[in-house]
Design goal:
Immunoglobulin-like; 4 helices; 9 strands; 3-stranded mixed beta sheet; 176 residues
Length: 176
C-alpha cells in the first residue's frame, strides 16, 4: 500500500480485512491499520461490521464508534461500526450442510425478560483458535418465545450477553 501511495498520492485504496487488522491502535500488538497510518501519514477510515448487531428497522446503518464508549469490552479503536441487519438464510449460506434443531433454552441461562439478550454463535474450532476475534456464524436478539432454530450440524461456542456486552451465559454446544 505504501508503494501505491508513494507512486500516486491521489490513489484510492480499499482494504477488506478481518480479525482486528482494522484496529487503529491495539497495544501491545500493532495491526495493519496502525502500520498503514504510521508508514503513510494517512489516517484510514476503519469500519467494524462484526461486533454490533441490532434489530433496527433498516437493513444497514453506520454509527460512530464514539456512540459505544460506555459499552463493556467493546473496543472503540475504529472509526465506525456497521450494523448489518440483512438477514441471510443459513440454509442459503450452508447449502451442502445437514441441519439439526438447536434448542436455545439452557438451565444456567438467567435473563431479564425486559432487556434484550444478544446471542452469538461461533464455530468451535475457530473460537478455540481466535476466541472473541472469531467471526460469529450467527448473531441475533434472543426471542424467549421462539427458542428452537434450525442450525448446521456441528460443534459451536454460544454466548448470551446483554446489549452492552455483559456476559450472561456461554458454553460449547453440539447440534445433532
Amino acid at each position: 500500500m505504501k508503494k501505491i501511495i508513494t507512486k500516486d498520492s491521489n490513489a484510492k485504496i480499499f482494504v477488506y480485512a478481518g480479525i482486528d487488522h482494522i484496529l487503529e491502535t491495539n497495544p501491545p500488538k500493532k495491526r495493519m491499520a496502525e502500520y498503514f497510518k504510521e508508514l503513510t501519514g494517512i489516517n484510514p477510515v476503519t469500519l467494524n461490521q462484526i461486533k454490533i448487531t441490532s434489530d433496527i428497522p433498516t437493513e444497514f446503518e453506520i454509527f460512530s464508534s464514539t456512540d459505544f464508549n460506555t459499552f463493556n469490552g467493546l473496543a472503540t479503536n475504529v472509526d465506525f461500526y456497521i450494523v448489518n441487519n440483512i438477514k441471510p438464510s443459513l440454509i442459503d449460506v450452508y447449502k451442502d450442510e445437514e441441519f439439526g434443531k438447536l434448542n436455545l433454552k439452557f438451565k444456567k441461562l438467567i435473563i431479564n425478560k425486559k432487556e434484550n439478550t444478544l446471542v452469538k454463535i461461533y464455530n468451535k474450532n475457530e473460537y478455540n483458535k481466535l476466541k472473541f476475534n472469531a467471526i460469529p456464524i450467527s448473531i441475533f436478539i434472543y426471542d424467549i418465545e421462539n427458542t428452537t432454530i434450525e442450525f448446521p450440524k456441528g460443534n459451536y461456542f454460544i454466548k448470551f450477553s446483554t446489549l452492552k456486552n455483559d456476559s450472561l451465559f456461554e458454553d460449547f454446544i453440539t447440534v445433532d
